[in-house]
Amino acid sequence: MADYKIEENKELSIWEALTPVVLLIGMLAYNIFYAGGELWGEYSNHYILLVGAVIAGGVGFFNQISLTQMFAKIKDNLHKTLVPIVILLLVGALAGTWLVSGIIPTMIYYGLQILNPSIFLPATVVIAAIISLATGSSWTTSATVGIALIGIGQAIGMPSGMIAGAVISGAYFGDKMSPLSDTTNLAPAMAGTDLFTHIRYMSLTTVPSIIITIIIFSFLSFTVDTGGATDVSDILASLKQTFNITPLLFIVPLLVIGLILLKTQPIIALLSGVLAAAVFALIFQPEVIATLGGGTALDFSSGSKGLSTAIFVETTIASDNETLQDLFSSGGVWGMKWTIMLIVSAMVFGGVMEAIGGLARISKALLQLSDSVFGLFSSTVASCLALNITASDQYLAIVIPGKMFAQAYEDKGLAPENLSRTLEDSGTVTSVLIPWNTCGAYQADVLGVSVAEYFFYAIFNYLSPIMTLIFALFSIKIKQLVKA
């Protein structure tokens, strides 16, 4: 990504660049708020993104951009999504195998006995932050402890949006601050500073943001009426009745986290988690697997069919407890199709916008909005947000503003870590707030909670860009460039 080439088109006006964006947002808003997300059926947002791409293509034709150039950028964008798509497929498989092996039920079983409503939300932020800090991945955090925390929270009567917001807040804190994170390495590379200088400088805005987030969630915990759901004895009994609950099942998530800490590729780590969970399912949950496979006892036929069902298609484990019915289901690999198609559609739109020079034109216009230091920071934040909306990719939301604004920061006598911090405070964390962004689509699907539901509660994610602007407005810890 450090070598990414930004397409510029000097003939393109700002109004031409904004036309596809404004129409896209208008269509998406109409679909969400007036058509209930069903304007053109289940895949309405996908079609709208493709219509947006056609509109952007029309603007490109008007400015002599060839179809070859557009398709080349679309191809580049789709190539970048191959790894995320494979990860999504593995997460679907992981969710299925972790359910039937009893890993998720075991996490819920022990979590219910430790986490009570009065501390649940702040504890969720802290747990997700620790796991994400250790792994460097918000995606892995959501796919492992995030799913379990959603289950525990729902079981004690917490609103799903609140739980997901707490998980995402903690996960993105760790994603920002971990030296293992790809975005934490990418931002300083774009700005021209080193990793640990970037992390130290970023902590000035990030630590206050996460402390405020934890305080807010602590207050929210006392405002939630769990409706008497704190008596979880029936849920615990149902969990033990359906699954063989044992602490030995924690070996699998610890294995996945350990592999990531050893800097194993996420695909290998997640695949290991799927395979290990499949083995543990045969050992600890033979009756569950046999039933899924259509048999009365576990044998080769019922075992292979049961595991295939858990990995590839929708799986539901029968339970007499209504609270657990939704928790005892998983979509498997097939359940990820909606998200994958949304990502593909978003990458098509982003590719055309990049090919016609629209993304660079919008960033340049934002750069010219103000000549003050605060204006420069504001323009960077706005550019990252705009790129997350238009390019639908957090990496481009870091790379393009990073390249476009680096010289402006130097001209203002500002150290490069000012830019790298702002890129992360606005580019990395806001990606999950956009439903069609790869991050927003992923988190919504994995956690089973729509972006609209968790948006208001993803406190850390919208507090971070506000915090960086407050620091800029009052010139708090704005490091100047030291020239040799």
Structure keywords:
mainly alpha, globular, 484 residues, two-stranded antiparallel sheet, 2 domains
Give a written overview of the molecule:
The protein has helices at 14-33, 44-62, 67-80, 82-100, 103-114, 117-135, 138-155, 160-177, 182-191, 195-223, 233-242, 251-261, 266-284, 286-292, 300-312, 322-325, 337-355, 358-367, 373-390, 394-411, 416-430, 438-447, 451-454, 459-473, and strands spanning 315-316, 329-330. With 484 residues, the chain is mostly helical. The chain folds into 2 domains: 14-81 and 338-473, no CATH class; 83-335, no CATH class. It has a two-stranded antiparallel sheet with strand order 1-2. Helix 6 (117-135) packs antiparallel against helix 10. It starts with 13 loop residues before the first helix and ends in an 11-residue tail after the last helix. The model has no long low-confidence stretch (mean pLDDT 86).
Tally of structural domains: 2
Strand content: under 5%
Q: Can you count the helices?
A: 24
Helix percent band: over 70%
Tell me the structural class: mainly alpha
H/E order of the elements?
Answer: HHHHHHHHHHHHHHHEHEHHHHHHHH
Silhouette? globular
Distance between the termini: 29 Å
Strands, total number: 2
Major sheet characteristics: 2 strands, antiparallel
Strand order in the sheet with the most strands: 1-2
Average pLDDT metric: 86
Please give the radius of gyration in angstroms: 23 Å
Residue ranges: pLDDT <50 for 5 or more in a row? none
Please give the structural blueprint.
Blueprint: H1 14-33, H2 44-62, H3 67-80, H4 82-100, H5 103-114, H6 117-135, H7 138-155, H8 160-177, H9 182-191, H10 195-223, H11 233-242, H12 251-261, H13 266-284, H14 286-292, H15 300-312, E1 315-316, H16 322-325, E2 329-330, H17 337-355, H18 358-367, H19 373-390, H20 394-411, H21 416-430, H22 438-447, H23 451-454, H24 459-473
Antiparallel strand pairs: 1-2
Helix pairs in contact: 1-2, 1-18, 2-17, 3-17, 4-13, 4-15, 5-7, 5-11, 6-7, 6-8, 6-10, 7-8, 7-22, 8-10, 9-20, 9-21, 10-21, 10-24, 12-13, 14-15, 17-22, 18-19, 18-20, 19-20, 19-21, 19-24, 20-21, 21-24
